[in-house]
Design goal:
- With 131 residues, this protein is mostly helical.
- The chain has a domain of 89 residues.
- The protein is built from three helices and six strands; from the N terminus they run ββββααββα.
- It has a two-stranded antiparallel ribbon.
- It is elongated, with a radius of gyration of 28 Å.
- This is DUF485 domain-containing protein.
- It comes from Planococcus donghaensis.
- InterPro entries: DUF485.
């Protein structure tokens, strides 16, 4: 790793010679334009958009459908079991759907992170080196 020494990192001793007091590592900046144009990055963004758009549409669609159905129809007023109506089943299924989507997102995010790291390594940029 290359070290950078600036004028502020030196001190003069009693004989007038400069001594290095601090050395800082050079932070290697990746070429973001090349990364953005790479096939690995494009594949990552394609898969990420595909997943996020479809899950967001499912999530919002079912939540909006629930509000519309309970406000303007009486489809869910029928009993499911005893005094429990289909409204309660639909409402609790929305909670279950939310937990399932979060779990699926967490699993997918691990894969997206691995793809991002592979893309950055392709361009000799390791995030751990800069810390």
């Amino acid at each position: 790793m290359t070290k950078v020494i600036t004028e502020n990192d030196t001190q003069q001793d009693a004989r007038g010679e400069k001594k290095v007091t601090h050395e800082r590592p050079v932070v290697k900046e990746p070429d973001f334009q090349k990364i953005e144009n790479s096939s690995g990055f494009r594949e990552l963004m394609h898969k990420k958009k595909k997943f996020l758009i479809s899950t967001t549409a499912l999530f919002l669609g079912l939540y909006l459908l629930f509000n519309i159905v309970i406000s303007y129809t009486n489809w869910l007023d029928a009993p499911f079991i005893g005094d429990i109506t289909w409204v309660w089943v639909f409402a609790f299924s929305l909670f279950a759907m939310t937990w399932i989507l979060v779990t699926v997102y967490m699993k997918k995010a691990e894969k997206f992170d691995a793809m991002a790291k592979a893309t950055l390594k392709e361009f000799d940029y390791d995030e751990e080196d800069t810390k």
